[in-house]
Structures are given as structure tokens and as C-alpha cells.
């Protein structure tokens, strides 16, 4: 069974339909990239996958024991965080909140999990540093560690490399690829960066209000939509 | 000096002022950290103006001031949060609308009934004589509630302050906690505003948080430091007010400004020292 299965999904934003008749699914250990132009409904789709926006038609079914509050989400950075006084440890640990339910305090197991994920992403030595003093790439690692704390099965990344320099961007992609291959965590990534996307993704969803293409990455390269978009990507890249 | 300070505690009104003031400044410091970080600083200011309007109406109707003001200000707080969440009217414009509107209503009501007199002056700039024993009881209950809720929901408050979307995605009812913070802020402001003054009370929300953020690097230390700084500044401010016969609200704000200055310098020295290493 699939982790996420979307059937005939339509989502409206302030009365306007932004996504319609969309069907796709994400299986275990898949690496799905959602590509598309600005305003093609990517962010709205992300909100719906997180359960923050209910669809007007169709349904999203979570399977394989994936719970709605156990999606490891890496949001686009917001400006509140630019001067936020919080240590790296505090931020990462807050990813364990969904395992708490109504119980107010973190347990030793939660703290251990937070440390493990910091270790995994190579940010253990930043533990006590202030989040606002970190570089862009370090911040994304911290937020990725937080997302890993929140999930066992699925990471949902919304434009994770925006504002990162090329070297850090490549490192970040490799990191995500390693997590995907090694721990079998499925990855759903919204991205502008079509070239790097093709390098790692197993599946592609090309969104333009509805699915222009959904399938394996290899097939996308040879499809009409894929060819046109990849060519465009080369021009801009 | 020491004698004068001991003498200060022999007046029941001073003891009440210090007790209520300390508890209100403790609560507002805790709530203020979240409000400042979420860019809601002006909500405190807006609510105090609404409180002014409500107190004016209560005086005109000969009703108990708190019984009228607390529900009205809570309503305004919930309304302001709803508007801030909705992008059609931007949050800062909405707050300016509501606060000037409420101020105008208050001034109209007063001028039609008692006329502009010392009462108005006291509402605007605060009076150290304003605290009754009922206020003492209410402020103890309020601060107990704020402290208990803050400890229980600390991790959730951190999560929604840092990243509301992520918190919601992991199943935290962010709206519920935002409303809770707004309601507690409303009660804190109404309690404190008659002593600090409608125009000055929001300083208790904003100053301690900003002061601590100059130096502290973790959320927990910012919260604890804010609470301590806020209570100390209030005590020093009230003492100055008593010793030099200055207005209580203004004295407390001046002391808070001093603390902000000291922390800013300390923060600058600290980061300068780190860079040298």
C-alpha cells in the first residue's frame, strides 16, 4: 500500500480552484519531486498533504501506518526565524512534539532521538549555538534534523535549497539522497531546480493546476512535457 | 534611604501596588516573549487603548471597572488575532484602527459624563493609588494561571512561536494556543493598566523580551531572564516613584529603558569578545 494516495484531488484557495483532478501516489522509499512554475499550485498542495487545507473534492489517503501528524516537514524559511533566540538543540527537539500528545514534557527518549538526528546531519557540535547565528546551510540542516525527529516514514521538503550557494546546495541534495537510500524514508520535494531534481528523484510530478506528468523520472525525460521543461531549465540554468 | 524603603512597606497601598505590579510584570514578561517574536508587539498597545475605552464606559455606567473592561478587552484580543491571521487587512493597520477607535469612544464617553478630569489623567498615565485588595486577589489568581499554563504548554508555545506551520503540521492546535496567549495578555493588561497607565502598559510586554534577547541565546534563558528583569525593573521603578514622588508608570518604563541600554552594551561586548577569540 502507498504512503500517500491522492485521488481526483481539487483544492481551492480563497474561492479559486488552484489544483484540480490531481491523482498520484507516493510509495515507501520513493523520492518524488514536484516541479512546476510559480503559481502552479505546489505550495497549496503541500498544505493539503500536511492536513492544513482540506480539499474541495477528492481525497488524500495516508497508508502504511503513516499518521497525519507524522510527516517530517521542512518549510520555506519565514522571517520570524531570522532573529529568533533559540538554541539548535531546542529547535531540533521541538520536532518530537507530535510524539507527546497531551503530555507536556519531553522524555529522555525524545532527547536521545534529537541528539541522534543532530549526529546524523553533522550538527552535533552546533547543539548549543543560537539558531539565528548559523549560516543558511546550517539552518537548513537544523530544520531537516527537526523534520527527521517528527517522522519515521516521510519527509516533505518545500523548496529546501532556496537561498543556498551552489556547493551547499549540492551537499544538501546528497544528504537527502543518503537519508532516502539508507533509512528508506520516502522524500517528497517541491523544487524549482529541475536539473538536480532529475539526478536524484525516482518519480516526478509535473504540476500545472493538474498533473501534466506523473511517473518515473526516467520516463519523464522522454515525455513531451519533460523534454520541453528540461530544455527550458537548461536555458535558465 | 534604607529607612525610606522600609517605610514604603508600611503603607498598605504601596504593598498592594508592589504586589500587583510584580505579578503583572511577571505575567507580561512571559507572554511578551511570544508576542514580540511573533510580531504581535503592538497588540499590547492596541489592547490597552481598548481597555481605556472600556474603563471610561464602566465609569459612566457606574459599574465595576474590571467587570466591564476584562470581557471587552478579551473580545478585542481575540478579534485582533483573527484579523492578523487574515491577510485582507494587515495586522498593524487593524491594530491602529481598533486602538484609536476605542480611544475616541473613551474620550467621547468621558467628556459627555464627568468631563476631562483627574480620572482621565490617571487612566492615561496610571496611578499608584489605584490598586484595591480585590485587584491583589485577582492578580494572584491571574499570575498563578499564567505560570501554570506556561509551564504545562511551554514546549507547545515554543513550537508555535518558532514555526507555526510546522507546529500545526505535527498536530499542535496553534489557534487554540494563540487565543490562550491573547486572552491572558488581555487580562494582564487590564489589571496593570490602571497602575501603569493605558499609554505605558505595553512597555511591560515589549521591554523585558527585547532586553533579554540582546544577551540570551536560547528560548528558555530569554524567558527566565525576561521574568527576572521585568520584576526587578518594576520594583526599582516603584521605589523611585515613592522616593522622588514621580509617576509610577513612567518611572518603571524609564528603569526598563535603562535595563535595555545595559543589556545592549553587554550584548555588544559579549559578541565582540567572541569575535576576538
TrEMBL record, chain A:
Coiled coil: none
Keyword annotations: ATP-binding, Nucleotide-binding, Transport
InterPro entries: AAA+_ATPase (IPR003593), ABC_transporter-like_ATP-bd (IPR003439), ABC_transporter-like_CS (IPR017871), Metal_Ion_Import_ABC (IPR050153), P-loop_NTPase (IPR027417)
One term of GO molecular function: ATP binding
Domain of life, per lineage: Bacteria
UniProt keyword tRNA processing, yes or no: no
Family membership noted in the UniProt record: Belongs to the ABC transporter superfamily.
Protein name: Zinc transport system ATP-binding protein
Organism name: Faecalicatena orotica
UniProtKB/TrEMBL annotation, chain B:
One BP term from GO: transmembrane transport
Record-annotated membrane-spanning stretches: 56-81, 93-116, 136-153, 174-191, 197-215, 222-242, 248-269
Name of one Pfam family that matches: ABC-3
Gene Ontology CC terms: ATP-binding cassette (ABC) transporter complex
Listed Gene3D superfamilies: ABC transporter involved in vitamin B12 uptake, BtuC
Main location, first listed in the record: membrane
Annotated InterPro entries: ABC_BtuC-like, ABC_TroCD
Annotated keywords: Membrane, Transmembrane, Transmembrane helix, Transport
Annotated localization: Cell membrane; Membrane
Protein name, UniProt field: Zinc transport system permease protein
Protein source organism: Faecalicatena orotica
Lineage: Bacteria, Bacillati, Bacillota, Clostridia, Lachnospirales
